[in-house]
Q: What sequence folds into this?
């Protein structure tokens, strides 16, 4: 069976790390067909569209999409793409690796971020000269769907349960609904949960990240708190993510275009290759996914390494080392 | 001139650290009259009201209010009290102290948090069986008032400028308005600013807190990011805050009721005493405020210390040591 993969490198180092991840995918014994498409600042400068219709269509019909990064147009690219694949959850592991400098080397978390609503579904208005508003949306159906996913995730990975993060002491109706719905589903499924306020989570995860494992949260909370966890593990350079829908998925590094080093051939491909590992697992090849992850981990630990991790290897050299270890 | 100070200890360790701060205030050569009032879980259990009208009235008429902490009713107490004193900015310094264990000992930040709107002014609705909404509010007038305060703060403290934190790539109208208004005021005033997205701030402040100094942000961003900074300096136990209005102010530690140690006489009074120092400065006594802060800092460095900081002193002993150093 052939899997159609949309490949959208985007801008900056996206154009360097995405081909690296494709190289790793090509080294697996899986039948992929790759279809490349444009998105981001560069194509916008040329055509006026940050996300050309062909690209959107491609993501909407491919079995899975691998995305690199986009510059100033990031929100115009990534938010519609998440919708194109109908992804309802953004899976963001934040793991520190042995030998890599980290503020909190014991960090090993995974965020399951609601991916369709909250302020991201926000309708905005200018009500008067003075007043602007945004309507934040929380639905029971989206909360329930996320919770079912979280329960499957906990069961499949033999986790002890999950933590619900919210701000229901202030957003009583919306986050209260999120919290109650998620807790209720988990309860029905026999999955253990605890809950913590978003602000308290921010303090506690710095002081002792080991007290958390799987973290389920609304959209913006997931955005900010997973980036906080990225800070604890040493930066965005190593964090993959998966936008998962019922049939399709979109896989992207958490980092951006890194304009300071773009074009030099020294971008760290680890986050994108780890995202490709999530893609492979999403398609059902658990062993191949694990093999890619182990090859990346071994390369992080033993080298070669790119300059952001204190090494002097190029993107190509690191990619070749990962392929060698497969 | 006599200053009327409302004193609202609240629940848990609030009832231990608030009297400690009053003791320090009494040791200053300033003419205070203290008026104590109830708020929180305990008075709610008795009377059905977490914030009795007398307490609200007292805060609304006192020159300044010192608040301790409240338990489950925290939001029902603190949000109306912030309104009662008409506070439009929440000033939250997050500073690591020599000799105190911190994830990031070089942290020295101050958050100027918008204190009246955002999701906190949110009107919530249940639109249908499935859909709940919250209307987030951002006004030009509140953004402008905060920006003027931030400019004064930067000028008075000889800071280089401030950083505007926002999520305007998603909340284009509301946070876009916040960012543009704040930047425009600063520009008119000749105060330098830069800007960073809320999620990027979370990563960057972990990796290198020294790149930031004064941080201006919307209400919920300030809540979460200042708690994140609390994690970097070693916990909530040392963080004071000032809710500042045009005429009155409300001063409170960032920590909560600490039910695990409440009643044992070992709560760390530093955050509340540092909040009292902010109160004293708010009333115009800059030297007395600085003296209190220095006495707290010397005591943190040289002891005695409460158990949360590895010592074995009581709240009373630490308070006495601070008073002695005045
Ligand atoms: C680019 C932006 C819209 C996006 C988000 O807020 O989700 C990014 O920060 C992310 O987390 O992927
Ligand atoms: C208790 C709660 C409503 C409050 C807030 O969200 O502002 C608290 O977290 C704080 O920061 O003082």
A:
């Amino acid at each position: 069976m052939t899997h159609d993969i949309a490949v959208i490198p985007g801008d900056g180092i996206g154009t360097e790390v995405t081909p690296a991840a494709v190289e790793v995918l090509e080294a697996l014994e899986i039948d992929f067909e790759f279809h490349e498409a444009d998105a981001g600042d560069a194509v916008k400068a040329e055509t006026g569209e940050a996300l050309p219709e062909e690209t959107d269509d491609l993501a909407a019909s491919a079995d899975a999409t691998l995305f690199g990064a986009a510059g100033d147009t990031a929100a115009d690219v990534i938010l519609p793409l998440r919708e194109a694949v109908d992804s309802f959850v953004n899976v963001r592991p934040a793991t520190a690796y042995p030998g890599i400098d980290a503020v909190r080397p014991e960090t090993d978390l995974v965020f399951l971020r609601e991916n369709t609503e909250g302020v991201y579904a926000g309708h905005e208005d200018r009500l008067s000269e003075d007043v602007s508003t945004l309507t934040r949306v929380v639905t029971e159906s989206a909360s329930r769907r996320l919770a079912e996913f979280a329960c499957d995730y906990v069961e499949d990975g033999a986790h002890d349960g999950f933590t619900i993060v919210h701000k229901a002491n202030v957003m009583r109706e919306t986050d209260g609904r999120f919290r109650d719905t998620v807790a209720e589903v988990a309860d029905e499924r026999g999955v253990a949960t605890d809950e913590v306020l978003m602000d308290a989570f921010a303090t506690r995860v710095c002081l002792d990240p080991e007290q958390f494992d799987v973290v389920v949260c609304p959209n913006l909370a997931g955005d900010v708190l997973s980036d906080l966890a990225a800070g604890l593990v040493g930066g965005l350079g190593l964090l993959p993510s998966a936008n998962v829908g019922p049939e399709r998925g979109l896989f992207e590094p958490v980092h951006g275009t890194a304009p300071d080093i773009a074009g030099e051939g020294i971008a760290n491909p680890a986050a994108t290759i780890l995202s490709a590992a999530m893609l492979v697992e999403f398609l059902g090849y658990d062993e191949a996914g694990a093999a890619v992850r182990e090859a990346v981990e071994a390369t992080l630990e033993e080298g070669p390494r790119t300059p952001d991790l204190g090494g002097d290897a190029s993107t190509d050299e690191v990619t070749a080392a990962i392929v060698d270890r497969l």
